[in-house]
Amino acid sequence: MTDSVKYLLAEDQMPKAWYNLAADLPVPLPPPLHPGTGQPLGPDDLAPIFPMAVIAQEMTTERWVDIPEPVREVYRLWRPSPLVRARRLEKALDTPARIYFKYEGVSPAGSHKPNTAVPQAFYNKQEGVKRLSTETGAGQWGSSLAFAGSLFGLEVEVFMVKISYNQKPYRRALMETYGARCIASPSPLTNAGRAVLEKSPDSNGSLGIAISEAVEVAAGCDDTKYALGSVLNHVCLHQTVIGEEAMVQMEMAGDSPDVVIACTGGGSNFAGLAFPYIRENLKGAKVRIVAVEPASCPTLTRGRYAYDFGDTGHLTPLVKMHTLGSTFMPPGSHSGGLRYHGMAPMVSHVKELGLCDAKSYAQTECFAAAVQFARAEGIVPAPESSHAVKGAIDEALACKAEGKGRTILFNLSGHGHFDMQAYTDFFSGKLRDPDFAADELEAALGALPKVG
C-alpha cells in the first residue's frame, strides 16, 4: 500500500468504453411501457425526444459501448479525475479505516454531470439537432449541458426548479455564461407549467415538473430534442467512466474497497461509481454498496417499487422504479439535485435484487459532515455530495468502534462553490430539516398508474 495522497491516471489511461450493467444483471430490467398502450416501448416511441444513437444506448444489452473519439477529446479537459486518499480526515476521525474519494468536482461545471452531457450533445449534433431542452435541480446538470452545448454549437434551454433558481443565482449565471437560457419552473411558457401555477401560484417546483416542461418543449419542436441528466440507462452508462477509472486507481494505491458509497437522487453518480463494482460482485467479489439519499425525499428507503411516470405532467413513458409517486412534492432543501420522486430504473432494480443497501440522512447532519470534511481535506462538497460524505464518515466511525480497518471508497460528485448560501444558513442556524406529511406521500403512492 502506498503513502500517496492523490492517484492520477494519464490521459491515455482514460476508459475507451462505457460499461453497461444490463449485460450482467441476473434478472433482466423490466421494460419501459408506453403510457397509452401499456406495451413495451420501441425506438420509434422515443424518437420525438431523443436522437437515435441515445435511444440505441438506452436499449442495448451490450456489455461495452465505445466512447467516440470526439467525446474522449472533450473528456480530456478534466478526465481522468483524481482518486484521493483522505488521510487528514482519517486522522481527524481517529479511525483505522482507509478512506478514498473519487473527485468529480474537477470538471468545468464542477460535478460529474458533464460525463453524460458531452456525449448527449455530441450525438444530438451528429443527427442535426439545433436545440436541447432540459431540466435542472441544483443547477449542476443545467450547467453541464450548457457547457456541452457551447462546445457543439447547440442552443440550450434549461427549466430550473424554482426554489433552486432563487437559491442559486450563480448557477444560473454559469449557464448563461455558457450561452444557455435558464427559466424558473414551473413557468408560464408550457402547458405543464401553467397547470401547476394555476393550482399553486407559489409552487417551489420539483424535478418532475421541470422534466414535464422540458419534454413538452422538445416534443413540440422538430429541431429540438430533450436531454436528461440522470435516471435513464444511457445516463448511468455514460457515468461508468468514474468507476472504471477508480478501479485502476485503487490498484495503484495497492488497496481495494470493502464498501462503496455514493449519494442518490436520480441515481447517475451512484451508478457511475457502483456499477463496475456490482459487476465484480456478480463474479464473486464482496464489496458492500451503499446508496445514500435525503430523508426529505427518501425514494429508495420509503418509496414503492412500481411503474410510474418520470414526470409530474405524465408526458414520459412508464418505468419501473422506486418512486414516491409522480405527484409527490418534495419539501424544499438545498440538495436540489436529490429532490426527485423516482430513482433510476436500473438502480432501483439493483436494490430490489439485493445488490446494494440504502440509507437516508437529514439535511443538517449532512452539512455537519461536509464542514468536517472541508476542514480536514480542503474541498467544500456540494450539498448533494454531502450525503456521501456523511455515509463515509459514519462508516469510518463504525470501524473505529469495532477496531476494524475497512477500506471505504465514496464519490465526491461535485464541489459546493455555488452553494455557499446553504453553508451560510447552516452556520447561522437557519438551516432546517424539511419533512413531508405522511398523508401526502400516501396520496401520491395511491395515485400510481395501474399496470397489469
Automatic annotation (TrEMBL):
An example molecular function term from Gene Ontology annotations: tryptophan synthase activity
Q: Which Gene3D superfamilies match?
A: 3.40.50.1100
Protein biosynthesis: present as a keyword of the record?
Answer: no
Q: Name one Pfam family in it.
A: PALP
Q: Which UniProt keywords apply?
A: Amino-acid biosynthesis, Aromatic amino acid biosynthesis, Lyase, Pyridoxal phosphate, Tryptophan biosynthesis
Instruction: Give the catalytic activity.
Output: (1S,2R)-1-C-(indol-3-yl)glycerol 3-phosphate + L-serine = D-glyceraldehyde 3-phosphate + L-tryptophan + H2O
Write out the pathway annotation from the protein's UniProt entry: Amino-acid biosynthesis; L-tryptophan biosynthesis; L-tryptophan from chorismate: step 5/5
- N6-(pyridoxal phosphate)lysine: modified positions: K113
> Carries keyword Amino-acid biosynthesis?
yes
Tell me a GO cellular component. cytoplasm
Instruction: Tell me the subunit arrangement.
Output: Tetramer of two alpha and two beta chains.
Query: Can you say what this protein is called?
Result: Tryptophan synthase beta chain
State the organism of origin. Magnetospirillum moscoviense
Name of the encoding gene: trpB
